[in-house]
Design brief:
The complex is a heterotrimer of chains A (346), B (375) and C (91). Helix content of chain B is 35%, strand content 17%. By secondary structure, chain B is α/β, with parallel strands linked by helices. In chain B, the strands form four sheets. Chain B has a five-stranded parallel beta sheet with strand order 2-1-7-8-9. Chain C has a single domain, classed as Roll (SH3 type barrels). Chain C starts with a strand and ends in a 5-residue tail after the last helix.
Chain lengths: 346, 375, 91
């Protein structure tokens, strides 16, 4: 077996060109100089067509996601960190310990390589922080104008090392709904960062891995019924899906919903309801009433759960609906999102 | 948020609700129309109806500029957007509104250049930044929004921009109010006057309602405490035997309105002979068009628009909903053929429309005596 | 009908061009003040305005706002006392 090349590979190009996508030397140099260097782990190192790994015992969770956020970097994070955390979170709320990720890149011709390097670096640090390995990857290049800079598609594999069954079928009337922190931070941060609404504000995306929060709640055993990370479509969408799938109702208390003042202000200005805006570092869970206090204590013991609160409860009816008791003492339906939560003027 | 949170105080709301309950006569229903879609939205957002006694019944009015725009005008906007080299700048509200053959979002998917803007000035900025494209701003809204378009036109002229135009659909509040007041079988006893329109036209502009039609008006701000206070003021008028225009939104609205805003409108726009309103038919002098000196910025002169007139679907009874003659759930297609996703009639088009607000926020609360349509 | 948000003027960048910056709980935006800036009553940082589609549409009268709230709070006070009397807790 010849000694593998150990020379430091350098990429001198300033921008991605179509040759980087051709699979030849330019592709290999790019992969070695950027991806392998950042993601360096045994599974990825051989750069074979597949990573070969051995699965620990226990049920396995598999997920996939794609990331097309614009701009690529925004206050609080970038598309790379978002891709890792989002995939980790999908595994975590299924009750799995995240083990491996894969990342497929679609790069637009002309993308500055420094931008790509920064994104790959933040992906690597996010993966390192969680302790998952990016075991396989792929890179394709498309002509200028055919992609918005860069898209990332991920897959994630995790193992369930407990026998707690999670899902809407486990939810009962009387169960409590707990939320790990403030709403709408990511969606508003990106909307402002995009710039076309010409708003400014120190609002950060909340992108973060919630695997430790999920693990803490798994410690509740049977008392834990259901978990989700309320990303696209916001908390309202996650809870409407729960209500529909469980055939029960979820009643929220408006005065319990945590929202940062600046985020609430941006939503008021744009006429958007924060319940429908994306979060990228939050966990919502349904727990049995007798473990609700402990669930909150476990969440609050973690920095990402410091502002965890109970926001409502599950009720037998009206079937499949989400309701909100308003701070004023009235109530309203929190309906499924119709269309996109677009800023409105009236 | 200052000037917002103070007017959402639950304790004040409870005491106002108690006061309102003490001002009604058991069994005697008072029908109050809130004209403005923003009020309709606030009422549902805060769940206000549940704080009101059954004797106070809210009727949702025509004051939503998105809902009342005829489908033919949406088709005209789509025709502009699909013109080679043209960018149509529009508020987010109009993107999903269906015209005769689909919405602006669908046109965008087919390749039309449609961009969402928060302000008409952003549309002007777009034109300045992209001189090789023509930017047309889809202007909608009552007298609240017309001054913003007017100032934008004045700046476009001052900057001698040749690649900017306005497709003007600004509408006026008085004609639809008269149309509703003159509807036989009208079941409205009092009016909550729009807040932000009144900051421009002034609370005096509604004097014709008590004077000619014998119904009291209270101009209200948009927070729940404001709305509850306005309802209490209306009920007190009835008890005192008064019938006049009162201003609850004193922190913003003046009797004479905003002279600078009115001047800006008058300089750039003039009333049209008539204009079609969804649910209310064709109303004389009920909308604005650009005046002659601004012809160079008038999309209706620059583009050959289809100008088709598209009937409301037969099954649609929005006109009766808008005049309080029927409730949303009494319309045969409510919640079935007509839903927020596939709105048939004007009241279902925007989240502020009477039927959409009821479907999305309130459809669970059936009045005690009437059986509801399927939830 | 028309979304309006109370905001505080924090800077008048270009009075001639009608350009100012407003703040709402930390969120800022450039707005046009041509509709509220008067030669004899110029708009100044610290003033509160109602913002709609990127324009200051009207000034907010702080005095009127305080009076309305004061009136409401006194009314609420009165209501609570009446309530207690009705329940007979006040001897």
């Amino acid at each position: 077996m010849p000694e593998p090349r150990t020379r430091r590979v350098l990429v001198r190009d300033k921008r991605i060109t179509l040759t980087h996508g051709a699979g030849g030397k330019a592709t290999r140099d790019l992969v070695e100089a950027l991806f392998l260097d950042a993601f360096g782990n045994d599974a990825l190192a051989p750069l074979g067509d597949s990573a070969v790994v051995s699965l620990p015992p226990g049920r396995v969770a598999v997920t996939t996601d794609s990331y097309v956020v614009r701009p690529l970097a925004f206050p609080g994070g970038d598309i790379g960190e978002l891709a890792v955390n989002g995939t980790v979170n999908d595994l975590a709320v299924a009750g799995a310990r995240p083990l491996w990720l894969t990342a497929g890149f679609v790069l637009e011709e002309g993308l500055p390589i420094d931008e790509l390097r920064a994104i790959v670096t933040s992906m690597a640090s996010a993966a390192g922080h969680v302790g998952v390995a990016v075991a396989a990857g792929d890179t394709k290049v498309v002509e200028r104008g055919k992609a918005d800079g860069l898209y990332v598609t991920t897959a994630g594999v995790g193992v369930l090392e407990h026998d707690v069954v999670l899902g809407p079928e486990r939810v009962h009337p009387g169960d409590r709904v707990v939320l790990s922190g403030t709403l709408a931070d990511h969606g508003v941060a990106v909307l402002i960062a995009r710039g076309d609404l010409r708003l400014e504000g120190d609002i950060q995306s909340d992108t973060a891995p919630v695997h430790e929060l999920a693990a803490a709640l798994l410690g509740l055993g049977e008392g834990l019924r259901w978990m989700r990370d309320p990303t696209r479509g916001g908390l309202a969408t996650a809870l409407n899906e729960l209500a529909a799938q469980s055939g029960l109702a979820v009643r929220l208390r408006e005065d319990a919903l945590p929202i940062e003042p600046a985020v609430a202000a941006a939503c008021e200005i744009l006429g958007i309801d924060p319940l429908y805006v994306a979060n990228e570092g939050k966990l919502v869970a349904v727990v049995a009433p007798d473990v609700a206090a402990e669930a909150l204590a476990r969440l609050r013991a973690h920095p990402l759960g410091a502002e965890a609160v109970e926001i409502g409860a599950v009720e037998p009816e009206p079937e499949g609906m989400v309701l909100l008791d308003t701070a004023l003492g009235g109530s309203r339906i929190v309906d499924l999102l119709v269309g996109d939560p677009l800023p409105r003027i009236c | 948020m200052k000037y917002v949170d103070e007017y959402r105080d639950p304790a004040l709301a409870r005491s106002l609700a108690a006061e309102i309950a003490s001002l009604v006569t058991p069994g005697e229903v008072v029908r109050v129309m809130e004209v403005c879609g923003g009020h309709t939205h606030a009422i549902y957002r805060h769940g206000l109806e549940e704080l009101l006694p059954p004797e106070v019944e809210l009727v949702h009015g025509p004051g939503c500029p998105v809902c009342v725009i005829p489908m033919g005008r949406v088709d005209d906007a789509i025709a502009i957007a699909e013109t080679e080299g043209v960018t149509l700048a529009t508020f987010g509200d109009m993107l999903r509104v269906p015209g005769g053959s689909g919405s602006l979002l669908q046109a965008q998917a087919r390749g039309a250049d449609v961009r969402m803007v928060y302000s008409p000035l952003d549309a002007l900025e777009l034109a300045r930044r992209e001189p090789d494209r023509h930017v047309c701003f889809f202007a909608i809204g009552f007298e609240t929004t017309a001054p913003a378009t007017a100032i934008t036109l004045l700046r476009a002229r001052a900057q001698e921009l040749s690649n900017f135009s306005v497709f003007c659909n600004h509408v006026l509040i008085e004609p639809p109010l008269r149309a509703i007041l003159e509807t036989p079988g009208l079941r409205v006893d009092a009016f909550i006057g729009p807040g932000h329109v009144s900051s421009v036209i002034g609370s005096d502009a509604y004097r014709f309602i008590p004077e000619e039609y014998g119904r009291p008006v209270v101009v209200s701000a948009f927070e729940p405490i404001d709305l509850l206070q306005s309802i209490a003021m209306l009920l007190r008028q009835r008890i005192d035997g008064r019938c006049e225009v009162e201003n609850q939104y004193t922190r913003v609205v003046r009797p004479e309105g905003n002279p600078r805003a009115l001047a800006a409108i008058a300089e750039t726009m003039e009333p049209r002979e008539d204009f079609e309103w969804r649910g209310l038919g064709v109303l004389p002098a009920s909308a604005l068009r650009l005046r002659e000196p601004f012809a160079a910025f008038d999309a209706e002169r620059l583009f050959a628009l289809p100008g088709a007139r598209i009937e409301d679907p037969k099954a649609c009874r929005c006109g009766e909903v808008l005049t309080g003659q029927i409730k949303p759930w009494e319309c045969g297609v409510f919640g079935t053929a007509c839903t927020p996703e596939r709105p048939l009639g004007t009241c279902m088009v925007s989240s502020e429309g009477a039927c959409a607000a009821y479907f999305s926020y309130g459809r669970l609360r059936r009045p005690r005596e009437e059986a509801g349509v399927g939830a | 009908m028309c979304l309006g948000v109370p905001a505080q003027i924090v800077e008048v960048a270009d009075r001639e061009g009608g350009l100012a910056t407003v703040d709402v709980s930390g969120v800022r935006r450039a707005v046009n003040v041509a509709l509220v800036d008067e030669p004899d009553a110029p708009i100044e940082p610290g003033d509160w305005v109602l913002v709609h589609v990127g324009f200051a549409l009207a000034r907010i009268d702080e005095e009127e706002a305080r009076e309305t709230l004061e009136l409401l709070r006194r009314g609420a006070e009165l209501e609570r006392e009446l309530e207690e009397m009705r329940k007979g807790t006040v001897r």
